[in-house]
Amino acid sequence: MPFVGEIFSQLKAAAETKVLLEIRDGQVTGVTGGEFLELIRKARTFLASKQLRKGDRCGLLAANSIRWMALDLAAMAEGLIVVPLYFRQAPAELFAMVKDSTPSLVCCGDAALRDGILQNWPGGDPAPPHFLFDEIFAGVDGIDLDRPQVLDADPVTIIYTSGTSGAAKGVVLTAANVGFMLGCTSERLDSLMQGRSGQDRIFHYLPFSFCASWIAVLTFILRGSLVTLNTDLTKIASDMPATAPHYFLNVPQLLERMRRAVEEQIAQKGGLVLAAYSRAKAARAREKEKRAQAGDVIWQWLADTLVFPAIRKKMVGENLKALICGSAPLTPETQDYFDMLGIPVLQVYGLTETTGICTMDDPNNVAPGRVGPAIAGIEMRLGENDEIVVRGPNVFPGYWNRPLQTAEVLHDGWFHTGDQGEMDASGNWRIVGRIKNLIVLGSGHKIAPETVEEELVRHLPGAQQVVVVGNGRGYLSAIVTGNVSGAQVQAALDAVNPQLPHYKQVRAFCLRPEPFSIESGMITANGKLKRDVIAARMKSEIEDLYRVKQAV
């Protein structure tokens, strides 16, 4: 049975049980499995009234909500291909995606989103009809939920890539792709929860328009979990512990922010709390370096007893089993920091083209700095330039209307990810960087900038982004954004450079107080750097770095 039918069966079994909650304007509302099915039925009735054909595209432009997920499931059940659109995307990028996917209609969460895209619609191209959620969910009952529509081979969604290296491409995923992945993710969560009975409690804030986020929520619903949706990112710190989740999906940026917030609050407290915290951190560092001192055990015990439990409770509540982190590599230091607090962090790795996931940390065998082994049923190996290539039921059939680009990345069933990686003896993978991001110095040395950037960010708590440049030059330079001074950057370079081979050392830098943003078009919707755009916009500043300093 395709996954949509399995989800409907689970919701029927949970007809009287709360399955989804959302926190909006300080108020918590929710639906039982039966109430959620009624929302799906109303959306299906509306869609059926539009005389759409199987395979027609349905754009979905809205912030996260219970109704978003109901409409998504309704459209897929009706045999439509859902095109999720990120509600914070620039109008020009949204238009490009809509034009490329040619949806028969676009469903908008509110009038502001609808008007925003229509007011920026270029002349000469007719816009598809746009309908508001209030209209869609106002319909009466009428559709039989058991009416079969979806087959395993059917495309169910087109998710657009982040566009780090050019125009975004539409990734087609089938019901079979999604169904396979839901089984894999659910199995790994079973391992995490170790046979616990009752509902899993989950907090969720990442946009549904991101593949891994969408797969996660479908998994949670299929498992009969209680999912609480955050609808205001500024309230995460208060919403999260109130939800008391067992686990939830994160991006490294949030975990880094959580770490900094703890450090600041502990520093303000002072006294015994600060002393125990600081000395326990130092003791742990010495333990890892195998140079423990007398008294370290006492400070670690004191922090484990009095300080760390209070931090955990305030940060994530009392039920947490683990944080799950994806989207970008997490530094080993941050992963180890949360482990010190008694909060395991499990990493996942994947791309939209691999239905969001290729590897997942084994909860019983976590290697800090690595993203776990390939999940069962998926093959991963290294190709030319240590590129990760993947084969399995999770690999997409191709890009929407882009046969040439599809042929470039799919060879004999193997998907070429564009990521450089390495695997240890235990089968745990580490992601080194993107092949397209490789910097080739004038000397011929090839450098993945991500590893250097991560080290510098680790030494610059006030920095928002560090971008290493130097393609074709004699040495590397860095652009640093955020609230940092030149002296702080130089101190970071003095700490990092001696640990690197000469060709990886950063010799010059420039400061940019304003961080790169989605709105400026310099990072993608999921926070990845648009390096080509940054290089073009900051061409003058980059040229200055190489005019004022000679290569060493």
Structure, described:
By secondary structure, the chain is of the alpha/beta class. The protein has three domains: 3-174, Rossmann fold (3-Layer(aba) Sandwich); 252-318 and 321-434, ANL, N-terminal domain (Rossmann fold), CATH 3.40.50.12780; 438-547, ANL, C-terminal domain (GMP Synthetase, Chain A, domain 3). The chain is built from 18 helices and 25 strands. Strands 15, 16, 18, 19 and 20 form a five-stranded antiparallel β-sheet that branches. β1 (18-24) and β2 form a beta hairpin. α9 crosses α12.
Task: Please give a handful of descriptors for the protein shown.
alpha/beta, Rossmann fold, 25 strands, 18 helices, GMP Synthetase, Chain A, domain 3, single chain, 552 residues, four-stranded mixed β-sheet, globular, five-stranded antiparallel β-sheet
How would you sum up this structure in a few lines?
39% of the residues lie in helices and 22% in strands. By secondary structure, it is of the alpha/beta class.
